[in-house]
């Protein structure tokens, strides 16, 4: 028996349910998986209800294995229902319990809508990542966006650009590098990860002419970690880090703020990028898109990112097992 990836339903009014069905059709049994959610929200009969995650591998490849979780009401595409917010949260909690108990190999999370969860259930977390960390008592995790072409990690994430210099501390940068290095070893099977670290300022500060953070903050952290055996390049000018030849020289890029990291990967591989949370005691991936209420239920949503996220979750879980 192969443990399956637990795929959470996400917001049932978004594109998550239809993408779950499409991903299963595309993958067949190549990635063992089961979906946790209310079958009423799938809008299709191409599924088979299971009573236990271990039954997932017995479901025919053209049907989506479903571990049912009853929600308060049906879902209308594009119209979030506050009464279903509690169910969305419960499904995430259930997936964590299953992976922690050894009944699932990893978690892949379909998109949630933070405002809908806050309005309907008082959800007090900025997003999935922070909630997952809270559930398992982890103080600090790292967000990685990954595809076959590039892996990027933003040190600061969802804050205003004006707030980045104050938020960017030596402690945060060092912790991000350490968690990224450990994640690449454990989850991606890299014996000696090579990390390229971007500067904060244009041309990495150009010797202090365009900013001093590279000299006062970034370089001292890199030198200290290099002395401990980390393979680090930089601080480098971000505008020269992401062309094809440069990408051959590292396994992941550490970037100082959100767009510095996400613009290159979304430009290179918009549909294939996967959101990976490093630093959790289990594997968690997610497609790199939102609930897309505007196209939900219209047959326009592409499953590429979810397919990539499921594949990566399966591969990372296998890497953890050695």
TrEMBL record:
Pfam families registered for this protein in UniProt: PdxA
Main location: cytoplasm
GO molecular function term, any single one: 4-hydroxythreonine-4-phosphate dehydrogenase activity
Pathway info: Cofactor biosynthesis; pyridoxine 5'-phosphate biosynthesis; pyridoxine 5'-phosphate from D-erythrose 4-phosphate: step 4/5
Domain of life of the organism encoding this protein: Bacteria
SUPFAM superfamilies reported for this sequence: Isocitrate/Isopropylmalate dehydrogenase-like (SSF53659)
Cofactor note: Binds 1 divalent metal cation per subunit. Can use ions such as Zn(2+), Mg(2+) or Co(2+).
Reactions mediated catalytically: 4-(phosphooxy)-L-threonine + NAD(+) = 3-amino-2-oxopropyl phosphate + CO2 + NADH
InterPro entries, per database record: PdxA, PdxA_fam
Subcellular location as annotated: Cytoplasm
Its EC number(s): 1.1.1.262
Keywords per UniProt: Cobalt, Cytoplasm, Magnesium, Metal-binding, NAD, NADP, Oxidoreductase, Pyridoxine biosynthesis, Zinc
Chain positions recorded as substrate binding sites: 128-129, 266, 275, 284
Main function: Catalyzes the NAD(P)-dependent oxidation of 4-(phosphooxy)-L-threonine (HTP) into 2-amino-3-oxo-4-(phosphooxy)butyric acid which spontaneously decarboxylates to form 3-amino-2-oxopropyl phosphate (AHAP).
Oligomer status and interactors: Homodimer.
Leftover remarks: The active site is located at the dimer interface.
NCBIfam families recorded: pdxA, PRK05312.1
PANTHER family attached to this UniProt entry: 4-HYDROXYTHREONINE-4-PHOSPHATE DEHYDROGENASE (PTHR30004), D-THREONATE 4-PHOSPHATE DEHYDROGENASE (PTHR30004:SF6)
Family under the similarity heading: Belongs to the PdxA family.
Protein name stated in the entry: 4-hydroxythreonine-4-phosphate dehydrogenase
Classification lineage: Bacteria, Pseudomonadati, Pseudomonadota, Alphaproteobacteria, Rhodobacterales
